[in-house]
Amino acid sequence: MNTIDYLLHGFATAFEWHNLVFAFFGVLIGTAVGVLPGIGPMSGVALLMPITASLTGALSPEAAATSSIILLAGVYYGAMYGGSTTSILLNTPGESSSVVTTLDGYQMARQGRAGAALAISAIGSFTAGIVSLIGLIFLAKPLTDIAIHFGPAEYFSLMLLGLAAVSGLAGKSMTKALIMTVCGLMLATIGIDPLSGVSRFTYNLPVLYSGLEFLTVAVGLFAVGEVFKTILEREGNEGSIAKINRILPTKQDLKDSAAPILRGSVLGFFIGVLPGAGATLASFFSYIMEKKISKTPEEFGKGSIKGVAAPESANNAAAGGAMIPLLTLGIPGSGTTAILLSAFIMYNIQPGPLLFNQHPQVAWGVIASMFIGNLMLLILNMPLVKVFAKVIETPAKYLIPFIVAFSVFGVYAVQYSVFDLVLLMGCGVAGYFLSKNDFPLAPLVLGLVLGPMIENNLRRALTISNNSLSIFIEKPISLTFLIIGLLWLAIPLLLKIRGRKVLINEEA
Q1: Tens digits of per-residue pLDDT, 294-331?
Q2: Which of 62, 128, 238, 459 has the smallest CB count inside 10 Å?
Q3: Given pLDDT bands bounded at 50, 70 and 90, which one contains residue 222?
Q4: Which residues fall within 8 angstroms of residue 461, CB to CB, at 6 or more apart?
Q5: What is the number of alpha carbons within 13 Å of residue 367 lying toward its C-beta?
Q6: CA-to-CA distance for 216 and 26, rounded, in angstroms?
Q7: Cα–Cα dist 446/347, whole Å
Q8: Residue 364 CA neighbour count, 13 Å, CB half
Q9: CA distance 50 to 337
Q10: How far is it, in rounded angstroms, from Cα 417 to Cα 413?
């Protein structure tokens, strides 16, 4: 079968009634997650992962994995849509990739053009979603064909590159990001060694023999940590919400936005493909590029519709682009895709070059559902934008009990273990204090997910080479990945030493 045949089969899977329901609720919850300041796509996806596992319990393993990933991916790109709403109406970004949208979006709202800004944001996000999916379809097969020839040495170096990429640009301090990466790798070693059968860091506690459950750690760090932050810091929306009058944009708005949307979509897609770059950098670069090439750069920051169209398109395209390394190479490029990777692993499905051959229903079903999900988002966001604007006003006292209940019941339903509930709360406290002190959580999550795979590939490579480390530099692809990884860490460091400002990816 060729790519088109696979895609058509994917649509047949995505159009099954339960997958349509999962896609609908995924994008709906994702939009709400994006609208609510502070929650973000990582917390949303982590929180819903155990719930989807319970909901799909009656399906076959492959069908359950497909439905779950459809819902979780819907939350991911739905949050990108929703993030713009608070940026435009409240001057408070729902998540980090919408920070730059506040510059012109809120100014437009103050001028009585909030509806036009939200509509252009929705249209731009839809266009970007479609562009990135077309890119995903065309790049998936060639990348898979290349990756299928990778050996353990190439995979080991590629995973190190993924860790270096996320650590190099995450958070305000590279040292703190690297500390978190090492912590994640160390936590991944807890449990019984699968090769030798020796227990490591278990202290004779049977609950630790199978290692720390990633699901519990992720939900604790992101969802419960956010609850502690809201309670202890008493975060609230103190600003006034701008009114929405006319929703449909004018012909001039559409004409002015068309080119920035296309440029933002293409740029955002290619930035999203890079591990560690993410949606935040895509939106910043897109805004800077649009301002540079504009004939009227003085209008930016004062309510230019181009300043909304370009970054909103870029951050959605980056979300689609980030799915490429995840699906084709099995390497997550950001915190959210690391959680999606763990969702695949939870269903005993390993993303990577063999995913498209061994589980075409999952791979192409998810890709096809993203087309449907983007269309649903456009239909939902245009007429219901006033409803989502009301979600911003949800008091924390109603929201916190829901998040805690979903976290506790979700984790217990999957693990059936009191130890995991204690671990959940412990990770919540740790997540709060780490975030408060600017320690990025995504490198820890990525280290925890990639740790066992890195160890496995390192051992296999050393077995093949008779314990010689030279195998990693003798193979050209492996050496290339290692050099890129070193440059990824060294270049931001050199720029900082020379006093240059480095854009960081707060999402990662």
Answers
A1: 888 888 888 888 888 898 898 888 888 888 888 888 87
A2: 238
A3: confident
A4: 151, 152, 153, 156, 471, 472
A5: 32
A6: 21
A7: 18
A8: 22
A9: 16
A10: 9
Return the number of other C-beta atoms located less than 10 Å from residue 344's C-beta.
Answer: 24
Question: How many C-beta neighbours within 10 Å does residue 332 have?
Answer: 29
> pLDDT tens, 17-27?
999 999 999 99
What is the pLDDT confidence band of residue 501, given thresholds at 50, 70 and 90?
low
Mean pLDDT, residues 113-127 taken together? 87
Within 10 Å of residue 267's Cβ, how many Cβ atoms? 22
Q: Would you state the structure tokens that stand for residue 486, as one six-digit string?
A: 């070193």
C-alpha 36/C-alpha 30 separation (Å) is: 10
What is the total residue count of the chain? 508
Residue type, 388: F
Structure tokens at 112: 């009585």
User: How far, in Å, CA of 316 to CA of 97, rounded?
Assistant: 9
Q: Which residues pair with 505 in a beta bridge?
A: 170
Residue with tokens 């860790």: 163
> What tokens does 261 get?
């949307």
413-448 in b/e form (b: 16+ CB < 10 A) is: ebbeeeebbebbeebbebbbebbeeebbbbbbbbbb
Q: Please identify which residue in the block is written with the tokens 């709400």.
A: 32
User: Per DSSP, what are the bridge partners of residue 191?
Assistant: 200
The tokens describing 292, both together, are 């540079």
Instruction: Please report the pLDDT score of residue 369 as a whole number.
Output: 92
Q: Are 457 and 159 in contact (CB under 8 A)?
A: yes
- Label residue 467 exposed, middle or buried (CB < 10 Å: 0-12, 13-18, 19+): exposed
3-state secondary structure of 170: strand
C-alpha 50/C-alpha 40 separation (Å) is 17
pLDDT digits 0-9 by tens, 32-53: 888 776 667 877 888 888 888 8
Q: Return the residue matching tokens 């006033």.
A: 386
User: For residue 283, what are the contacts with CB-CB under 8 A and spacing of at least 6?
Assistant: 97, 98, 99, 100, 101, 268, 311, 312, 314, 315, 318
Residues facing residue 192 across a β-bridge: 199
The CA distances from residue 356 to 12, 15, 363, in Å, are 16, 19, 6
- Report angle CA 128, 266, 139 to the nearest 5 degrees: 95
Q: DSSP characters for 373-422? A: HHHHHHHHHTTTHHHHHHHTT--HHHHHHHHHHHHHHHHHHHH--HHHHH
Q: Which of 143, 150, 148 is nearest to 478 (CA)?
A: 150
Residue 32: both structure tokens together: 């709400």
